[in-house]
Amino acid sequence: MSLALKQVFNKDRTFRPKRKFEPGTQRFELLLMDWIELQINDEHIFPTNVGTPFPKNFMQVAKKILSRLFRVFVHVYIHHFDRVSQMGAEAHVNTCYKHFFYFVTEFNLIDQKELEPLKEMTGRMCH
């Protein structure tokens, strides 16, 4: 494994950027991965006990999470893919994206209109 990949996948490091905003401000509260983590860990949205029903708004929340994660892929591909390639992680990111794309399209979890930003690339990658 290359040195760059070892640095990325170091278990003592996190992918979350350091917060540069003052606590209590709106910008401080807008970190995407924190919001997703809060949703996934909320027992009212994602119940963990057998027999506990999912809430009526489960699909709405799940679709919102996946839609926002798609935007992360868009950002990575448009703004950071040169760095991903330098690290030798291109195949890994592409595989993650393909799995994500096939999942959300198989179950119609993201509107086709929202998938437009990566439509051309997706057409080449996902036959």
TrEMBL record:
Coiled-coil ranges per UniProt: none
Record has Zinc as a keyword: yes
Keywords: Metal-binding, Zinc
SMART domains named among the record's database cross-references: Mob1_phocein
UniProt cross-references to Pfam families, sorted A to Z: Mob1_phocein
Residues reported to bind Zn(2+): 75, 80
Protein name: MOB kinase activator 3A
Organism for this UniProt entry: Denticeps clupeoides
Gene that this sequence comes from: MOB3A
